[in-house]
Amino acid sequence: xxxxxxxxxxxxxxxxxxxxxxxxxxxxxxxxxxxxxxxxxxxxxxxxxxxxxxxxxxxxxxxxxxxxxxxxxxxxxxxxxxxxxxxxxxxxxxxxxxxxxxxxxxxxxxxxxxxxxxxxxxxxxxxxxxxxxxxxxxxxxxxxxxxxxxxxxxxxxxxxxxxxxxxxxxxxxxxxxxxxxxxxxxxxxxxxxxxxxxxxxxxxxxxxxxxxxxxxxxxxxxxxxxxxxxxxxxxxxxxxxxxxxxxxxxxxxxxxxxxxxxxxxxxxxxxxxxxxxxxxxxxxxxxxxxxxxxxxxxxxxxxxxxxxxxxxxxxxxxxxxxxxxxxxxxxxxxxxxxxxxxxxxxxxxxxxxxxxxxxxxxxxxxxxxxxxxxxxxxxxxxxxxxxxxxxxxxxxxxxxxxxxxxxxxxxxxxx
Length: 415
Fold this sequence. Notes:
There is one protein chain. This protein is 31% helix and 14% strand. By secondary structure, it is an alpha+beta fold. Strands 1, 2, 3, 8, 9, 10 and 11 form a 7-stranded antiparallel beta sheet that branches. Strands 4-5 form a two-stranded antiparallel sheet.
């Protein structure tokens, strides 16, 4: 009893005497937090018919805090003093600096979402370094096994195409047939390609990403997050070949004389590259389940930013336009503004997904991720002299638990 009273006193000191400002890895603490979850600015959306949302995996608090304590929220996180971001229809989003890795802000950065075709970026991050763009590949019937009516570039069974052409078909036209072919070329089969994609996601620290299909076509257990997509996009945009593909406006799919089929032209579906000054490209996505998903990047004033969106509706504003508005907001922030960071590839490899990541966001135990609308209690990382108080609290609680277990054992004996 005495231990619990002392622990309560220490907790009261922490809650009333320490500012709830998290320490952000790689920079000073400057993220805004609140006692309750801050709602994200939202645009009104029309009612749509969609399949029931799948149940996501249980949230793991350590995964929610990858990149910084301020990212462990289902609501809005922006730098202190920053102007409000524009309202969007996306259920979650994130804006980050491609070069420094600073996260400028987000809405539910680590909330699970369904990727749709933005998952093709994970395929690119995994297979692009492995495949020779000049290699000529022959399409098989299995490569064309995609959902009827889903996006395809129009590859032909028995057709022969350069790997570069197939990549362009993937990124310009979101070809699911191209995704199957590239996964097979890189790993021996589409299924093996998916396994390699998941291994790459773990290497990047994208712990909330699990691929089931190489294309992003919906499948049971397939999830990602806005934060994970930014990690993946950062790797893609670091590759000059990817950047060239992503900015290609149109290309010719060659004729197949042996099959007596003419060639045809395809165009890039990402409107950002035509309408946003400094655009670097990105990827669109849509399924009835995922709704609209989007990744886009742009450069302005020597600064390269990326935006990721999940679960958006195209009305009243299309997905790429929502991304453009968030990019404008990000470019308007000071260069040193951040609420967290994108972890580096391999940084978390030594830790298992259930273990605490090696992100040095705080030197004291962190609170678990709060449920929407619930108080954060110890939501910010505690700094300075509060670290000693937390340590004392942990000791007192441990003593209390040991005494409690003794009493429980006695009661159990009578059950």
